[in-house]
Specification:
heterodimer, A: about 425 residues, mainly beta, 4-stranded antiparallel sheet, 2 helices, B: about 325 residues, mainly alpha, 3-stranded antiparallel sheet, 10 helices, 3 strands, about 5% strand, disordered N terminus, disordered C terminus, repeat (chain A), WD repeat (chain A), PP2A_PR55_CS (chain A)
Amino acid sequence: AEADIISTVEFNYSGDLLATGDKGGRVVIFQREQENKSRPLSRGEYNVYSTFQSHEPEFDYLKSLEIEEKINKIRWLPQQNAAHFLLSTNDKTIKLWKISERDKRAEGYNLKDEDGRLRDPFRITALRVPILKPMDLMVEASPRRIFANAHTYHINSISVNSDHETYLSADDLRINLWHLEITDRSFNIVDIKPANMEELTEVITAAEFHPHHCNVFVYSSSKGTIRLCDMRSSALCDRHSKFFEEPEDPSSRSFFSEIISSISDVKFSHSGRYMMTRDYLSVKVWDLNMENRPVETYQVHEYLRSKLCSLYENDCIFDKFECCWNGSDSAIMTGSYNNFFRMFDRNTRRDITLEASRESSKPRAILKPRKVCTGGKRKKDEISVDSLDFNKKILHTAWHPMENIIAVAATNNLYIFQDKIN
Amino acid sequence: MLRGRRRMECTLDAQSLISISLRKIHSSRTQRGGIKLHKNLLVSYVLRNARQLYLSERYAELYRRQQHYPDGAPLLAMPACPPPPAASAAAPPELAALPLPPDTQDREARSCSAVRGGAELLEVPVCAAPPELQRAPCRDSSPAFYRASSAGPGPGSPPGLLYAAGCDFGAPHCSSRTTVLDLDTHVVTTVENGYLHQDCCSQCPCCCQPAPGLASPPPAPGTKRKYYPGQEEEEGVEEGEPGGGGVAGGPPFAPCTKRARFEEYSAEHPQDSSNISNLISIFGSGFTGLVSRQQADSEQPLNGQLCSKQALASLGAWTRAIVAF
């Protein structure tokens, strides 16, 4: 069903929880099994922990617009007590959810029965103290804050600040800064809407706070540029502190140059020294100290460059792939078509293509590397470009913050892979 | 959707790309969740690229015909201006004066890769590129790919003479005209300085019977134009505000004095080349953010080059339609 298509995947800070959002507005949270002597192999398995409906379809009567309930992004807050908090957003509204466990129940109330019915006060002859009894674990999700009505355009990103008090939300033309406690106002920190909309040349495609410097954030544009902004320099960060752009290669110009240079995702490294951007055909790693070109470029599926016409016709050229770092920033991962996803080792420069599918993913089976045949004679086990299934796209992937465990969303299926357990 | 073993070949020509792009924009209006600004912006880039190639090809065709019939050619279905009887005689000398870039002679330029030819055509730096091109408020850093198309006479603007053949010369004209296609009703409106008025070109070039605000203009004979107030809405909505009404005046540039009859855009005939030609002329008004705004302001004698600038300006009209929410 279309509502089951996964639209975002995110590990929490410890990696014990994995949240997914789907097109139907639901959030499903998986929790990693703890070590268990009686089931030694179950360590590392993720099982469903909580499911709730985060967003519902809405209708904007003023503009006669339906607002999709699809969850665009989920971001966890750092854990501060027993409960877990996450932000989830659709096109227009961000919600802060509290996920808490309840494993005890009070029994022995004076004024009501065990099933909740009120007791007749005249029947009460003695007082008793309620006691807590264990019960089956229940995980509850409740919306604690709703941040609404701040975005005219479609929200594409949210990012929690390292101060753990504020976060940003970005739509096509504006970025707003929120305080997690305050829902009735937000500060607009970036506004690229031109006075005359006919002069529009680019939109914001992604934004993220720096992992350590709470005053720094970046946002990427549809023109393939990234701007780094410092909130200390001015209240409205329309003027960037740094501007990252790689000059276009004029020999590769085509009808679709603008489309394939549009950045679909930007992610800081855990160290905060680098950032990574994803455009349609490649992933680029940038050093924050060097603005004129990336330090590393990885081709994800260069064989698609000659197919851009067809990909434009079937709308695949507009697919927005995400990318992610591993915990040590030594490897990066991103998705492709035919349920393939790619990993690049930054140190060895080796790359690998893997497939997330039922046939190749028996439990405990080792994934076999895949290869796309780009021309000439097709070797055994290679797949030709023309037989790639472009309906099977991996747009969302996530990497555990500390271990080699990855989550890969393939349409409406979630695959979790991990390193071989010795 | 691609299936199985279907071969992916890139054989679209500019015309198909234009019709595909327009269909995408049209269908995006009915998609759930409202108009996706990002996607439509990208589609408009493709549209502009394709149109520039298409126009340059048309120009090449015209030039070849003029070479063949120096005393007045049977006219092509020109993308913008139906030729006035007097103009055709005036056209050849203009065209003859133009050195033809070698790219346009290649009639085989029909595939995607040919856009490079088209792009190179337009990348020829033109002497008269005014420095004001830099002044545009938009942050457009487009290279000569676009600037050349906006410059005046010179080797870089042969597509401009596409219209020289068809356009009236020397007529003073109202400025700040923007032509808008309403993608809901498929009706074309011309807006000038915030006023609506009829098709200027089908009557006196000095035109202007402006009707203030959103009032419907009186129908002119022979024109099929209607305006439905409320259909066109400028995206001036700030957070929480209701959709802004009213139509802002377009950027100032002097359009072609003679325009093709504006037919209603028919989504049922995307392959009809004359419809696409007319559509291109309709969209001749500026998506000026993609091209420097100054192309419209630069001083040019009122002749066919004005049409060229306008025609080669990108697709601003329906940006408004796109963001009309």
